[in-house]
Specification:
By secondary structure, the protein is an alpha/beta fold. It folds into three domains: 3-82, Arginyl tRNA synthetase N-terminal domain (Gyrase A, domain 2), CATH 3.30.1360.70; 112-256 and 302-362, Rossmann fold (3-Layer(aba) Sandwich); 378-550, Isoleucyl-tRNA Synthetase, Domain 1 (Orthogonal Bundle). The chain has helices spanning 3-9, 18-24, 44-47, 51-61, 84-98, 131-146, 162-174, 177-198, 201-216, 219-242, 260-269, 303-318, 332-344, 378-396, 403-420, 432-435, 443-457, 472-482, 484-494, 498-517, 526-550; strands spanning 36-39, 68-74, 77-82, 112-116, 150-154, 273-276, 279-282, 292-295, 322-328, 353-358, 361-362, 428-429. A four-stranded parallel beta sheet has the order 5-4-9-10, with helices on both faces. The protein has a three-stranded antiparallel beta sheet with strand order 1-3-2. α1 packs across α2, α17 crosses α20 and α18 (472-482) packs antiparallel against α20. The radius of gyration is 28 Å and the shape is flat. The relative contact order is 0.11. The model is unreliable at 367-373 (pLDDT under 50).
Length: 558
């Protein structure tokens, strides 16, 4: 049950919307005062009364029932105590009934959300800087699907530009097919790095010519480009499989080359294109932004031009309700410009375009440059994390079967969770030791909690469940579990998978307190044992659902 909405519906607060009331309700830090609290200060101006008087009047008129047992006013706050047994009965019954669908809804039925994420560059290996966009986008894709939306995952490949001319020139000078086929993406990258460190003016001219040949459809140049693209996709697909990430479209920049014309023509027809230093731009100075360049002075397009064509294509193809761009915050200005241009073109769906900005992920070495070869490959980070996970698991549980499989789930999960746990806009410095801490705010801690719950459930059958009045530890856990559906909705509304990651850690902490403070298998009565087993099962279901939405596996044993 959404208790915030339930309370809001029953508050006779004229002049304030039910939605505004529900959004203002929170869990107080001192739960002895109540399970939920409504601060009335923000309503004082609207209702022309003091917050203290508002809280007192609402408390006196609130209809206590089987859900909310008490409403009291304290210093401008309206506190609510939930009927403990009623909440436990309803929550456990719903989790048992819905199982792996617990937390899902049909709120998105009939709606489509496009999600542009990962968007790797052809001929460049996957480095740790691609981690956030990939796992954030993958999590949002699963979350929206879980809420009934039709999600369309788009990998907008970086497969167009002069760098491919450079790559062909480098291959012609120093490469051979057998070595590149064997070395794959890393052999291609080595050629690219070498070109940027050794290229002469003559070679730079060759590179520009090779790119021109690609654009003009020259067979040899196009065949080489397609081969580099094929090697790239074979490579990244292996990483996507590890991260449990999928896409419905790999339409990259090159896909939109023949789709830019109509958009450029429309910009001209609507008088939005003006000349600036020989280039064709949309003037955005009246809106506090620099010009949006559509065509350079030599007539060449830019990636912004292709983004314009892509937005129109996606609207025409998918008729989306929302189109998300999961791209680093360094591109904030670009997307503000892009969305403003589409708005100026008179398209009402411009308001449905959303830049989901995120911070950078790095190791202690800091920033990276593919051009200089100073990069931290994501496959190496994952490999090292899996290796360290195997070592830790081997020390903690030498007799554990399938240690390699468990280490894979733990290691990969640790890398993903490291990018998902904090608010997405924060920069993150990834630490192997912190990510693999069994007692920290980590996926490992949550996975271990799941294994603990599964172990308890493996030792006893759950008999007929009668819900007693829950004690404090039991009730805190029940309340956490009851919040999961609302947490999933909030994660979608805020484009914040961290809501679910934090739910998982918080719920795991509450379960472990319950586990240590309350006897489960040795409970004082059979009725209490069955209730606590049912609570353990509900916890395992909810945590498994949470980790699954994040793309993280759940080992049965650890």
């Amino acid at each position: 049950m959404d208790y915030k909405a339930y309370i809001a519906e029953r508050l006779p607060a004229d002049g304030v919307s039910r939605e505004e009331i529900a959004e203002s309700i929170a869990v107080p830090p001192d739960t002895s005062l109540g399970d939920y609290a409504l601060p009335c200060f923000k309503f004082a101006k609207i209702l022309h009364k003091s917050s203290v008087l508002i809280a007192q009047e609402l408390a006196a008129s609130y209809p206590a029932d089987g859900v909310i047992s008490e409403a009291t006013a304290v210093n401008g706050y309206l506190n609510f105590k939930v009927n403990r047994r009623g909440l436990a009965e309803e929550t456990l019954a719903r989790i048992e009934r819905e199982g792996e669908r617990y937390g899902s809804s049909t709120v998105g039925a009939g709606k489509t959300v496009c999600i542009d994420y990962s968007s790797v560059n052809v001929a460049k290996p996957f480095h740790i800087g691609h981690l956030s966009t990939t796992v954030l986008g993958g999590a949002l894709y699963r979350i929206f699907q879980f809420l009934g939306y039709k999600a369309v995952g788009i990998n907008h490949l970086g497969d167009y530009g002069t760098q491919f001319g450079k790559l062909i020139a480098a291959y012609k000078h120093w490469g051979n097919r057998e070595d590149v086929q064997k070395g794959g993406i890393h052999a291609i990258n080595d050629l690219y790095v070498r070109f940027n460190s050794e290229a002469t003016e003559e070679m730079e001219a060759e590179a520009r010519e090779y790119f021109r040949l690609i654009e003009s459809g020259d067979k040899e140049a196009v065949d080489l480009f397609r081969w580099f693209k094929e090697l790239t996709l074979d490579y990244v697909q292996k990483i996507y499989e590890k991260l449990h990430v999928t896409f419905d479209s790999y339409a990259g920049e090159s896909f939109y080359i023949d789709k830019m014309g109509p958009v450029i023509d429309e910009l001209k027809e609507k008088g939005l294109l003006v000349e600036s230093r020989g280039a064709q731009v949309v003037d955005l100075e009246p809106y506090g932004m620099t010009p949006f360049i559509v065509l350079r002075s030599d007539g060449a397009s830019l990636y912004g031009t292709r983004d314009l064509a892509a937005a129109f294509y996606r609207k025409q193809t998918y008729d989306f309700d929302k189109c998300l761009y999961v791209v680093a915050y360094q591109q904030n200005l670009h997307f503000k410009q892009l969305f403003k241009v589409i708005e100026l073109m008179g398209e009402p769906w411009a308001k449905d375009l959303v830049h989901v900005a995120y911070g950078m992920v790095s190791l202690e070495d800091g920033a990276m440059s593919t051009r200089q070869g100073k990069v931290i490959w994501l496959e190496d980070v994952i490999g090292r994390c899996v290796e360290k996970a195997f070592q830790i698991i081997s020390e903690k549980n030498p007799a554990l079967e399938n240690k390699e499989e468990v280490a894979e789930k733990v290691g990969v999960g640790a890398v993903m969770f490291g990018a998902l746990y904090n608010n997405k806009i924060k920069d993150i410095v990834f630490s192997y030791d912190k990510a693999l801490n069994f007692d920290g705010e980590t996926s490992v801690y949550v996975q271990y909690t799941c294994a603990r719950a599964a172990s308890v459930l493996g030792k006893a059958e759950i008999g007929q469940v009668r819900i007693p009045e829950p004690c404090d530890e039991e009730f805190e856990l029940v309340k956490a579990l009851a919040e999961f559906p609302e947490t999933v909705r909030a994660a979608a509304e805020k484009y914040e998978p961290s809501c679910i990651a934090r739910f998982a850690v918080d719920t795991a902490q509450k379960f472990n307190k319950f586990y240590f403070d309350c006897k489960i298998l040795q409970a004082e009565s059979e009725e209490l044992k069955n209730f606590r087993l049912a609570l353990t099962k509900a916890t395992l279901t909810s945590l498994t659902n949470a980790l699954t939405l994040l793309g993280i596996g759940v080992p049965e044993k650890m």
